[in-house]
């Protein structure tokens, strides 16, 4: 890595999570009689999902553009908390421009947010709000997003790291140098995202950088294997047409018929039974060419792994985490997910295999630390699997690809 702070980090992406939204309180019927144009008090804001992360390390200013009917509709804030509090009676769409530190040389990010004053299930506008709203329960409308910087400047990358390091210090002190909000009632209703460990992992920019670089190396190696074997199945590229639900089963059968790449191994088509109840888990999965003890009930297994979505997109890998093996005892319900526990049996040390696992045999207990694994690391990969488990568990032809290489059986 270069020491020139004006240069850029090549082949590098850095993820910066943010939350933005509005929280609106109904002021009550008595207040409306006194001021009919002020039915609600609302706060529009931009914040970090991690309540200990120092936004001042990376953000220069935030510009809020309100409805033209407000005095000074353009509000510019140069210090956190980045928020605007007003009173009004109507809902409208506001724009939020996030300007990064000047030395970052990054374009501002423009967001839009619709300020909601009434709940989604509110009756028609002619109904008196006091009949279905109270002054203590706000209407919260918040979004989570991730800003991705490609090849960031060295100095800006350091600022992101400084924000993370400051976060760790703040965690010990239990405070920032500024309040999360000037409105105490607003702070009470900020949403939380995942477990703290996941959020910290996402904000650890240095660790994320290392993982991205290792992932790129692994991807290049996989592409080399695909290029060297003309019979291998070619996954759709990020620029190709996405795999749809209707043709997903055809894609999986194509993988089976042409062979599947995982750690350089080609798996024969006649070794699988795609019509089995558990798809390629209950089928006759080949053991690979490994030698030594066979994986079976009660054996402790060390393995390397690569996790992909059913469209072939990479999610995570043990290689990204310094090739630390996943270790579990076969048959232990708290060790590995059911699909892996079933699909790895019969293998030997040195063997490789790709297992296609339906979601109902995957992370049924969740992807948080301490659950059956292997567990994807970091907030982003875990969120991908959470969405699969929540939204696609009953989709016909939906599978998770788990490529495994057994390194030790004992």
UniProtKB/TrEMBL annotation:
Key word Transcription present: yes
Keyword Nucleotide-binding: no
Keywords: Isomerase, Nucleus, Rotamase, Transcription, Transcription regulation
Main subcellular localisation: nucleus
GO process terms (BP): regulation of DNA-templated transcription
Known catalytic reactions: [protein]-peptidylproline (omega=180) = [protein]-peptidylproline (omega=0)
A cellular component annotation (GO) from this entry: nucleus
Domain PPIase FKBP-type residue range list: 298-363
Subcellular location: Nucleus
Any one GO molecular function term: peptidyl-prolyl cis-trans isomerase activity
Record EC number: 5.2.1.8
Domain YEATS positions: 8-163
Domain of life where this protein originates: Eukaryota
PANTHER family: PROTEIN AF-9 HOMOLOG
Protein name: peptidylprolyl isomerase
């Amino acid at each position: 890595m270069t020491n020139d702070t004006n240069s850029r980090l090549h082949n590098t992406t850095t993820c910066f999570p943010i939350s933005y939204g509005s929280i609106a309180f109904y002021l009550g019927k008595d207040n409306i009689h006194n001021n009919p144009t002020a039915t609600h008090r609302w706060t529009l804001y931009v914040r970090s999902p991690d309540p200990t992360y120092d936004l001042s390390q990376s953000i220069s200013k935030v510009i809020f553009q309100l409805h033209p009917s407000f005095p000074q509709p353009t509000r510019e804030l140069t210090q956190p908390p980045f928020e605007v509090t007003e009173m009004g009676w109507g809902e409208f769409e506001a724009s939020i421009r996030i300007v990064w530190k000047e030395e970052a040389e990054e374009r501002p990010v423009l967001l839009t947010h619709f300020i909601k004053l009434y709940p989604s299930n509110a009756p028609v506008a002619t109904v008196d709000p006091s009949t279905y709203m109270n002054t203590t329960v706000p209407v919260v409308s918040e979004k989570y997003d991730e800003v991705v910087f490609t090849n960031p400047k060295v100095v800006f990358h350091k600022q992101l790291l400084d924000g993370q390091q400051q976060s760790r210090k703040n965690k010990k002190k239990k405070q920032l140098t500024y309040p999360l909000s000037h409105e105490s009632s607003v702070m009470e209703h900020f949403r939380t995202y995942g477990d703290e460990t996941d959020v910290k992992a996402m904000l650890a920019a240095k660790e994320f950088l290392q993982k991205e670089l290792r992932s790129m190396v692994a991807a290049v190696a996989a592409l080399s294997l695909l290029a060297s074997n003309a019979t291998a199945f070619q996954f759709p590229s990020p620029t190709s047409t996405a795999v749809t639900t209707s043709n997903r089963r055809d894609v999986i059968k194509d993988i089976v018929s042409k062979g599947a790449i995982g750690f350089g191994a080609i798996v024969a088509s006649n070794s699988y039974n795609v019509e089995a109840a558990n798809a390629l888990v209950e089928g006759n999965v080949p053991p690979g060419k490994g030698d030594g003890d066979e994986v079976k009930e009660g054996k402790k297994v060390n393995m390397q792994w690569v996790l992909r979505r059913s469209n072939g997109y990479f999610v995570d890998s043990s290689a990204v985490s310094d090739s630390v093996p996943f270790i579990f005892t076969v048959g232990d319900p708290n060790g590995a997910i059911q699909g892996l526990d079933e699909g790895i049996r019969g293998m030997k040390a040195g063997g490789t295999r790709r297992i296609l696992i339906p979601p109902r045999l995957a992370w049924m207990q969740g992807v948080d630390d301490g659950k059956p694994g292997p567990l994807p690391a970091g907030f982003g990969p875990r969120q991908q699997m959470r969405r699969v488990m929540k939204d696609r568990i009953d989709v016909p032809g939906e599978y998770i690809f788990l490529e495994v290489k057994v390194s030790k059986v004992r």
